[in-house]
Write a structure and sequence with these properties.
Helix content is 42%, strand content 27%. It has 110 residues and is α+β, with helices and mostly antiparallel strands. The protein folds into two domains: 1-72, no CATH class; 73-110. The protein is elongated.
């Protein structure tokens, strides 16, 4: 089953060079340029998050993140599923090794 992927097109804080401009017209152009990068079929998922981060001595500064969601590609899904299988196999191997170690310990083998 396909999962949704969040694509970040902008992620900046107040002191980054790519922080959005303060003027309303320039901001609208900045936002429009980002929206132009969002595929039309995913435009409804686009989000602009504006937040505040606390820093030194109780001061705060703004952060901005622009993103949209899309379904993962077939290649991304295949890679994720293969990764999950490898992780499950590695976990099973570790657990079987632990089981063997415990058997030796408690059944008088070691």
């Amino acid at each position: 089953m396909k999962r949704m992927i969040t694509v970040k097109l902008a992620d900046a804080d107040k002191y980054d060079a790519d922080f959005p401009p303060e003027g309303a017209i320039e901001f609208a152009k900045w936002l429009g340029a980002l929206m132009a990068q969002v595929p039309a079929e995913h435009a409804g998922t686009a989000k602009l998050e504006i937040d505040s981060i606390g820093s030194y001595e109780n001061s705060h500064y703004a952060t901005v993140c622009f993103m949209y969601d899309r379904p993962e590609t077939d290649e991304e899904e295949a890679a994720r599923l293969a990764n999950n299988r490898r992780a499950a196999e590695a976990k099973r191997s570790r657990e079987l090794q632990q089981l063997e170690d415990l058997r030796r310990k408690y059944e008088g083998g070691a």
